[in-house]
Write a structure and sequence with these properties.
mainly alpha; 80% helix
């Protein structure tokens, strides 16, 4: 479970809801069918117009990604694992890693290991792995773009909803008692548009981008580690090569763990 997503949504609802109450606005006014239809229905319609059906099929999966924790291997554990493989490889040869490859859960790492074991050219392996990473980044970019565009459309649709509401209000100027209610209802669409655009869709797009960045870093580490194993580099050199992907905190923790083992 991605706790930050749930915490953010709860805080957003509380902040806006409590703010409305403190300002003297009624929360009941948000239950405006016309405004909800214009904002949510209009945003969905814009997304369908703007993206091919093939891209939109992944939207349910994108929501799942935002609400579940990212299952990525720890960078420090990955460095340790690659170091162990490098030690075995230098001692017994690359073919000794064949049994290890079958135990790898990550498809990207497993396929890369098999290419190394098969003795493929290092440049070929690098090209294949980099193309895989590039394709993954493009898929992730397209997914995040859907939410970014939704965040762009929603506030504008809020203005559209306000205009529609004001047209209705101006058409009932003879009913003074209902005029205030109609004007108030007109701006509900604007509130919902801004809220969904800047509190929901844009932050969700940002979370998808951040998760993509983390996954890309891990896969880059895998690629560099596999190529280093193939080149027969010593474990210390591999550790130094891969340590650049770690933050200062992660690097310190890994060094402390190594000292404890020795």
């Amino acid at each position: 479970m991605e706790k930050s997503t749930y915490i953010g949504l709860i805080l957003a609802v509380i902040a806006v809801g409590l703010g409305m109450v403190l300002k003297g606005a009624s929360l009941v006014s948000l239950a405006n069918p016309a405004a909800l239809l214009i904002i949510f229905g209009g945003t969905v319609a814009c997304i369908f117009i703007g993206f091919p059906m093939e891209d939109l099929k992944v939207v349910p999966k994108l929501f799942k990604i935002m609400f579940t924790s990212q299952a990525l291997v720890s960078k420090s554990e990955l460095i340790q694992q690659i170091g162990e493989w490098a030690t075995v490889s230098r001692r017994e040869g690359l073919l000794s890693l064949e049994s290890k490859a079958e135990e790898i859960d990550d498809e990207f790492l497993r396929n890369g290991m098999r290419m190394v074991i098969d003795g493929n050219d290092p440049e070929f392996i690098r090209d294949v792995l980099m193309e895989n990473i590039s394709a993954m980044e493009e898929r992730h970019r397209q997914g995040a773009l859907i939410f970014t565009q939704a965040g762009t459309y929603a506030p504008t649709l809020g203005v559209l909803g306000a205009v529609v509401g004001l047209i209705a209000a101006l058409g009932n100027l003879n009913e003074i008692e209902a005029l205030g209610h109609l004007i108030s209802a007109a701006f509900v669409a604007t509130l919902l548009g801004i809220f969904t655009g800047y509190v929901l869709w844009h932050p969700m797009a940002n979370k998808l981008k951040q998760k993509s960045k983390k996954e890309t870093q891990v896969k880059m580490m895998m690629a560099e580690g596999l190529l280093a194993i193939q080149a027969g580099e010593p474990v210390l050199s591999i550790n130094q090569r891969l340590a650049v992907f770690l933050s200062s905190t992660e690097r310190t923790a890994m060094e402390e763990k190594s000292l404890e083992k020795t």
